[in-house]
Amino acid sequence: MKWASALSTQPSLEAALDEVIATAMQSLDAPADLAILFISTTFASEFPRLQPLLADKLPVQHFIGCGGNGVIGPTQGGSTAEVEEEPGITLTLASLPGVDIQTFHIYEDELPDPDSAPLTWTELLEVDPAHQPHFILFADPSSSKISDLLQGLDYAYPGAVKIGGLASGRSSWSGSGLFCDDQLYREGTVGVALSGNIMVETIVAQGCRPIGQPYRVAEAERNVVLQVEEQTVPVEATFNADEVELQTPLEALQTLVQDLDEDERELAQHSLSVGIVCNEFKQNLEPGDFLIRNLIGVDPRIGAIAIGDRIRPGQRIQFHLRDAQASADELEELLQHYFQKSPPDQSQPIAALLFDCLGRGERFYGEPDFDSQLFRRYFHNIPVSGFFCNGEIGPIAGTTFLHGYTAAFGIFRSQDD
């Protein structure tokens, strides 16, 4: 297995393609089985020309890609650059002996009913779950059913990794170019299923740090939390509900804010989120144990809060703050955890894809190339490519979600011997 990536910032589409193709093919030094391309939406008017040009210049059978407000790829000097809101093309080529590759495109109205059997989903994709595939997915940002798609894929392919992002651009239509083999799509989802001699692992950094303590949701309706209780008893314990002191989430938040320092109070005015605990039985919570969702509204009349996802009684939540330092600390902790849990005898990572939120990047950190360069401190010699997304796809605690403000890495290696 070999992977190679290249980045060009040439303002001409032809010149940029020539540069990335020549550089990636020379570095790969093997026939390419799969090409993955990310293209800046400054080229949006030229998207229809992309695949005909590639057909003439690049001999590869399987091809997927999408447009993005920025692209990420390796520089000639060996570092990784995040090119934001400027012309840029990143091409990744992979030589994948022993790997079965199946590309596909799905329109939103083709998705099965959420209650459909797994067989309905596997017939739609024509991907056999017995082959234990992993998926890379790029979706139209205007899709209203991307969460239904991810839920269906988890149902039909429970052991599969799903990683990717929503295309991004200056407008939802012109920037949502989705490329699959020789076709350009403006709607739906394109993807590739990889099975056989390949492993895909993920690091999903949601960019937040917890504040205060967890609370158990006592009453909720859809995405609105009405009552919470302090997490003072073990999850496994049974108790008399009449003895539990309930409060509104707004009361809990007001008490919490009083204990914050001045800088944190200021941050809480505009960067407050809610983390939903994924494993209800885990006591010692760590980064990666929460699904982060936006706090989207407060009703001061009844003290309720609305969050950007459904919530049910019994789940645990914890308030979080998002800032650059918290984001950097979380990503570094997850990178360290990845290496600590990796068996010493497994094959080494050979490539990575980064799906970075539009809300990260230089404006967030105050310096360029932050997420990709932090990743390269731990993965010194593997090519990294990706793009800035309008939503990131990746797993938390074994379930695939659509995220925001997240850096989602897909890490590729061969199967263990």
From TrEMBL:
All copies of domain FIST C-domain, residue ranges: 249-396
Provenance organism: Acaryochloris marina (strain MBIC 11017)
Transmembrane keyword on record: yes
Keyword Membrane: yes
Alphabetical list of InterPro entries matching this protein: FIST_C, FIST_domain_N, UCP018953
Keywords: Cell membrane, Membrane, Transmembrane, Transmembrane helix
Pfam families: FIST (PF08495), FIST_C (PF10442)
Topological relation to the membrane, as annotated: Multi-pass membrane protein
Protein name in the entry: FIST N domain protein
Protein location: Cell membrane
FIST domain span: 31-232
Membrane spanning residue stretches: none
One cellular component term from this protein's GO annotations in UniProt: plasma membrane
PANTHER family in UniProt: F-BOX ONLY PROTEIN 22
